[in-house]
Design a protein that fits this description.
The protein has helices at residues 15-22, 24-34, 69-89; strands spanning 4-9, 36-41, 61-66. The chain is an alpha+beta fold. The protein has a single domain, classed as Ribosomal Protein S8, Chain: A, domain 1, CATH 3.30.1370. The model is unreliable at 94-101 (pLDDT under 50).
């Protein structure tokens, strides 16, 4: 059995978008729908702070693991869709004066 892992960096999205994809209801739905495991890893780096890779530091991300590559890819797409939707909802995708932008 082949095991697949993908990482989705969520650090640079707005707080609301990060919350949306890490809340229990969303994670449970994604895990059930796409037959995968989702784990929060890393930490939030805001205000221009950067992680130090030599110390093993990483920006906040989701580690998504599964045995079906297609389902895993679809799960990742759904996570990005949810984060982009939430960023737009809070005003991140509406013009140049916004603090957030869609990645």
């Amino acid at each position: 059995m082949t095991f697949h892992v993908q990482e989705v960096v969520i650090n640079d999205y707005c707080r609301e978008a990060r919350w949306k994809v890490t809340q229990k209801e969303t994670v449970s739905r994604l895990m059930d729908e796409y037959a995968c495991a989702i784990t929060n890893k890393g930490e939030v780096y805001a205000g221009g702070r950067k992680p130090d890779p030599s110390k093993g530091e990483k920006k906040l991300y989701l580690s998504i693991e599964g045995t079906d590559a297609v389902k895993l890819d679809n799960c990742v797409k759904e996570i990005y869709r949810l984060m982009n939707e939430e960023t737009i909802r809070v005003g991140g995708g509406t013009g140049g004066s916004s603090r957030y932008s869609i990645v």
